[in-house]
Design brief:
Length: 562
């Protein structure tokens, strides 16, 4: 029999007002409903209701990972420097990494993700092709010193991730492990009740080739993706790389590592961008005939940038340098959207962090001044030329692409042999010769999923969980005096005896109005009220989502809910 959780004993102080620093719906509601409390920037304490939801999500993830034959392990979060030095990520991660020293002066880090350590575990455990394939996972606390830990648990500096890793001897094997994970993720997110899209992604600091993200569309999301209405193409705008420029002459491409002469002409610029010289470039800050000019920002609506012209006319184009910005802070700007500071920028790798710049629009009241690269947002040491807009033609069918905001809830990678090469992870093959192992890595933001789900399901009244994820199956409210309280507790116990997870609001001296408001805010899917007709043994069953109510006898209500 399940336990009845009494609200009078529950540590969940609800708040009427939004926390002052909260910008996103999930942040506001999870705090107001008493699920989480902020301990410090990006560090969150999970209170009883929040912990239940977090555990429910972890349980679904665990069940589906087990179902594809992945084995659960638990590795340390506190890690030695050496493996990350060997892979290069000790440096690559930069400020994102939490670093610390032990009493002997040895260098350690708090794990942001665990490719290195899993590779070493498998190197120790698996020696023959017969030991593979193997898939391992953990649900563990991860640490990243995020530049902007906003949005509550959506972007924590400490957060829960399910990370898994596959080890195969052949490329086909890796493709199979990847496919298994992809299918498991589809099941997981469907069970969680999340609306999501699978999109192409860049592999970022992970390295490797094939990579897809699972994005949950939501206004609070920090990712922008393009979606073909015919389902022919979907990608994170970070990953958009069209091979041929669309017919309208607009340019598309995500650039990495630009290596250009100091004073490129339009022709050189176009050449390394891989577009015709007549293309319209977006989101590029350059000097044209000595004047600094910004060209478009995609994805972020309502911007009205100075342009180089509909088509780049032959002119001398220079890359701007730090000196150009001295005494001209108005040139360093970010775009302030509904989610706060949103920046697209171009950083010259030759310029030190802190002196790089952003491009932004020139519209009044939509911009922040004096933002500093590295302090206010992450520094990427490559030119960020994101050039795709709503309505741009789908590279497959030509239909106009839709642009949307979303939360990255999962990410899957075919890493290939990058880490196996670093750590010489070989197994003895069928022919008696060593075979280099090929790997995949797969993440789900378990704590982020709590917030993503809240974002997608909440309404004006508060949170509104799907049953499998909710902290209880039913929330019983005693709306009245002793008679109602007695009935409420009695029904709650009957429901618990039938195996349901029950929350009962029997708080003395709390008005029915306050209890109803709290029930709506907490968001358990069914609300059962012992009120006016308690004397006749009649209760009211309310559906949290639809608001539909029904008067039922206690026996009917119990039968209905079980
Ligand atoms: P983002 O683009 O949002 O910074 P990421 O691409 O850096 O995420 P991955 O390295 O792919 O994240 O990690 C796997 C998953 O972990 C992500 O898909 C996301 O769901 C989750 N995650 C990453 N960073 C955070 C964070 N700071 N707080 C909560 N969850 C996170
Ligand atoms: Mg990140
Ligand atoms: Mg990402
Ligand atoms: Mg990612």
């Amino acid at each position: 029999m399940s336990q009845v959780q009494r609200m009078s004993r529950l540590m969940a102080k609800t708040l009427r007002d939004d926390p002052a620093d909260a910008e996103t719906l999930s942040h506001k509601l999870l705090v107001r409903a008493g699920y989480v409390r902020r301990t410090s920037a990006g560090l969150w304490s999970w209170l009883p209701l929040g912990k239940k939801v977090l555990d429910n999500i972890a349980r679904v993830v665990r069940e589906e990972m087990d179902a594809i034959g992945a084995q659960e392990v638990l590795l340390p979060a506190l890690l030695p420097k050496e493996p990350y030095e060997a892979s290069g990520r000790w440096d690559e991660y930069g400020d994102l990494l939490f670093r610390l020293k032990d009493r002997k002066g040895g260098d350690y880090l708090l794990g942001p993700t665990h490719e290195e350590i899993f590779t070493l575990v498998v190197k120790d455990q698996c020696t023959s092709y017969k030991d593979l394939p193997v898939m391992l996972y953990q649900i563990q606390t991860k640490y990243r010193d995020e530049a902007r830990p906003r949005s509550g648990v959506l972007r924590g500096r400490e957060f829960q991730m399910k990370d898994s890793y596959s080890f195969d001897t052949t490329d086909e094997g890796l493709a199979e492990s990847y496919a298994l994970h992809r299918a498991a993720y589809q099941k997981i997110f469907a069970r969680l009740g999340l609306d999501y899209r699978i999109v192409s992604a860049i592999s970022g600091a992970m390295g490797g080739s094939a990579s897809e993200e699972f994005l949950a569309p939501a206004a609070a999301g920090e990712d922008t993706f393009v979606d073909c209405p015919n389902g022919d193409y979907a990608a994170n705008t970070e990953a958009v790389t069209f091979t041929t420029p669309p017919v309208d002459g607009s340019a598309h491409g995500a650039m990495e590592e630009l290596d250009t002469p100091d004073t490129p002409t339009i022709e050189t610029l176009a050449k390394f961008l891989g577009v015709p010289a007549s293309a319209t470039l977006k989101n590029l800050l350059v000097k044209v005939d000595g004047e600094i000019t910004a060209v478009g920002v995609p994805g972020d609506r309502e911007v009205d940038l100075g342009k180089l012209g509909e088509h780049l006319a032959p002119a001398v184009v220079e890359l701007v340098t730090a000196e150009d910005f001295e005494g001209r802070p108005e040139l360093v700007r970010g775009y302030v959207g509904p989610q706060g500071l949103k920046i697209r920028y171009i950083a010259d790798p030759r310029v030190a962090p802190g002196t790089a710049w952003v491009t932004g629009a020139n519209k009044a009241d939509t911009h922040a001044r004096d933002v500093v690269c590295g302090r206010d947002f992450e520094v990427d040491d490559y030119f960020d030329v994101v050039v795709v807009e709503e309505g741009d033609p789908c590279p497959v069918c030509g239909t106009g692409l839709k642009l949307g905001r979303a939360i990255e809830i999962g990410h899957i990678f075919q890493l290939g042999r990058k880490y196996a090469d670093t750590f010489q992870l070989d197994v003895l093959g069928q022919q008696g010769k060593p075979v280099r192992v090929t790997m995949g890595s797969y993440g789900i933001g378990v704590s982020r999923a709590v917030a993503a789900l809240a974002e997608q399901t909440a309404d004006e009244q508060g949170l509104c969980w799907p049953r499998e994820i909710a902290p209880a199956d039913v929330h019983v409210v005693a709306a009245g005096k002793a008679l109602q309280t007695e009935l409420a507790v009695d029904v709650a116990e009957q429901l618990a005896a039938a195996g349901l997870r029950v929350l009962v609001d029997e708080r003395p001296g709390v008005s029915p109005g306050v209890k109803f408001t709290d029930a709506e805010l907490i968001g358990v899917p069914k609300i059962l009220v012992a009120g006016r007709r308690a004397g006749d043994g009649v209760v009211e069953l309310k559906d949290r989502r639809t608001g539909e109510r029904e008067e039922l006898t206690v026996a009917e209500a119990v039968a209905r809910l079980t």
